Amino acid sequence: FREITYTITNNNDTDITIGEIALFGEGSWKTSSSVWAHYLYMFERTALEIPITIAPGGVGQVTYTIRMNYPVT
Questions:
Q1: Average pLDDT, stretch 5-11?
Q2: What is the C-alpha separation between 13 and 55, in angstroms, rounded?
Q3: Neighbouring residues of 53: CB distance < 8 A, sequence distance ≥ 6
Q4: Is the pLDDT of residue 2 over 80?
Q5: Cβ(44)–Cβ(22) under 8 Å?
Q6: Does the pLDDT at position 1 exceed 90?
Q7: % of the chain surpassing 90 pLDDT
Q8: Cα-based angle 68, 62, 52 (whole degrees, multiple of 5)
Q9: Distances in whole angstroms, Cα of residue 38 to Cα of each of 25, 42, 43
Q10: What is the mean pLDDT of residues 10-32?
């Protein structure tokens, strides 16, 4: 599995609310004309049951754990 902790600092004058988190990846491939093409893809997106609110000047953390089961040969 993979685990990452996001630390979010609210430098704004108002609350910020986090209602969902997602895991993105980046890929690339070489086209037939030997030009590299790059893209982003989303592995997974989760809407939080209870949104997280961070007050002005506050710091919050979200730990995101994902397990990817796939065949290994």
A1: 93
A2: 8
A3: 15, 16, 17, 18
A4: no
A5: yes
A6: no
A7: 36
A8: 125
A9: 11, 14, 16
A10: 89
- Could you tell me which residues come within 8 angstroms of residue 1 by beta carbon, excluding any fewer than 6 positions away? 65, 66, 67, 68
Instruction: Report the C-alpha gap between 41 and 24 in whole angstroms.
Output: 6
The first and second tokens of residue 10, run together, are: 């609210």
- Residue with token string 């609350």: 15
Contacts of residue 26, defined as CB under 8 A and 6 or more positions apart, other chains included, come to: 38, 39, 40, 41
**Is the Cβ–Cβ distance between 30 and 39 less than 8 Å?**
no
CB atoms within 10 A of CB 54: 17
Length of the chain measured in residues: 73
Query: In this structure, what token pair is assigned to residue 44?
Result: 């997974």
Separation CA 44–CA 22 (nearest Å)? 6
